[in-house]
Amino acid sequence: MVKLTCASSFWALPASIRPLFRSPHLVLSCRRYASKDVSPGALTIGGHSYPIDSWTNVPPNILAQYGRKLHVQSDHPLSITRQLIASRFPSFRNHDSLPGVVTVEQNFDSLGFTPDHPGRNRTDTYYINQSTLLRTHTSAHEVDVFRANESDGYTISADVYRRDAVDKSHYPIFHQMEGALTWDRKAFASSEACIQQITKDFEALPKHPLVVEDPNPTYQPSNPLQTQYHSPEEAEILAKHLKRSLEDMVVTIFAEADKGLAAAGHRSKSEDEPLKVRWVEAFFPHTSPSWELEVWWQGDWLEVLGCGVIDQPLLIRAGQPDRIGWAFGLGLERLAMLLFGIPDIRLFWSTDKRFLSQFSEDGPIRRFQPFSKHPAAPRDVSFWLPKTDAPIITNTPATASTAASPAGGQPTEPSTSDQAPPAFHENDLMEIARNVAGDSVEDVTLIDDFTHPKKQRRSLCYRITYRSLERTLTTEEANRMHDHITRELIEKYRVEIR
Ligand code: DAH
């Protein structure tokens, strides 16, 4: 059997290749929304009522989990991870409770996302209506926080929402932490004086024993200096300050992870080799130059964060034309999983005492002790897709289909039963699986993709793995969930089961 990697959506692509997908002819498609998925009228989220329209695609199971605030729940591993990171930025102001419903303007436009950016697609993002969505990243608040101008440095920690793959490291709600630091050029007599201050601040940062690979110049055509706004010296010192600050943060996290491993009787990683990181060029609409920081961890390079020199037009939009600085963003789950050895992202949502009682804000990091392992119930679903001119997205980056994006602009009509079915997008199957099976679905993987040479019809086979973290599922339960998912696929996408 062919094993295909079921890479998830645009957001899951390494940031370094995401710019490729900005090209108009590589933009992913947007499926039409089936209006029967929501009740007519309005949605109430966090005490506010929002009108719905043909863009609405946020399902009830997501709304049911809105507002859990795991990142500030005491003794929760996500909160412990957040605090550990914040402790390396003691002078920063921490924003931990900004509401998750934001405008398209906040989430995309204010950051300079192009109108055809694929992150805007409804296949990737939960829309409440055409102009309102569940934030896809904490950067959605950058402009507002810069505008308020309450501190030179800040962090933003929050829940973020993305339509994405189902597997042990992807969940449609996860948590990010954003950080930024700026200096006010106006506060200095000259640009040189400002650079001198940043240099002084850089020299005061803690030194670390990390091995750092940083082969590229600070800026070059592929990762440009903002020539209109920054002198080369300004960009150089900002990059230096940024990199040292984030290296220090990463050392702290990984040293704690290492201590946790050693305390649990594992061999400490640093005994084998010193901690190693590398800087990789990246692209973000809201920074330039931009980088990702990767850490060598258990035999692999692990992408930990994205960062860069803040896009000056963004600061100008925020009413801070004289401020220059850097910003970063990271996913808290990924770091918490390695810090505590948590093997499945669904565990963060557990209310089971056997999970929650293992973590404490006071005291050292302790490795998670699995309290049970229930058997997996894998089931395959194999189907012919209907013949359609619309693009079919199975999301493997190499084969991502191409179509014009709605670009956050034109709403499309809801589909009705006598219209052609919406094009199949893998994230739709992910969502059906989550809606039907909740946290009892562990993984959905494309295992076969085949086009019949004569019939010119495409067949897909997905393996859906059912496994509860809390109990053993019966054969009947797994079958019932699987039948339900299959029925929804037939009804919504008119697939033909093989
Ligand atoms: N918003 C980016 C994402 O979700 C992460 C990010 C990258 C945030 C660079 C930043 C930054 O502040 O400077 O993928």
TrEMBL record:
InterPro entries: aa-tRNA-synth_II, aa-tRNA-synth_II/BPL/LPL, Fdx_antiC-bd, Fdx_antiC-bd_sf, Phe-tRNA-synth_IIc_mito, Phenylalanyl-tRNA_Synthase. PROSITE patterns: AA_TRNA_LIGASE_II, FDX_ACB. Residues 372-498 form the FDX-ACB domain. It comes from the Eukaryota. It catalyses: tRNA(Phe) + L-phenylalanine + ATP = L-phenylalanyl-tRNA(Phe) + AMP + diphosphate + H(+). Residues 145-370 form the Aminoacyl-transfer RNA synthetases class-II family profile domain. Keywords: Aminoacyl-tRNA synthetase, ATP-binding, Ligase, Mitochondrion, Nucleotide-binding, Protein biosynthesis, Transit peptide. Belongs to the class-II aminoacyl-tRNA synthetase family. Is responsible for the charging of tRNA(Phe) with phenylalanine in mitochondrial translation. This is Phenylalanine--tRNA ligase, mitochondrial. It comes from Salinomyces thailandicus. The lineage of its organism: Eukaryota, Fungi, Dikarya, Ascomycota, Pezizomycotina.
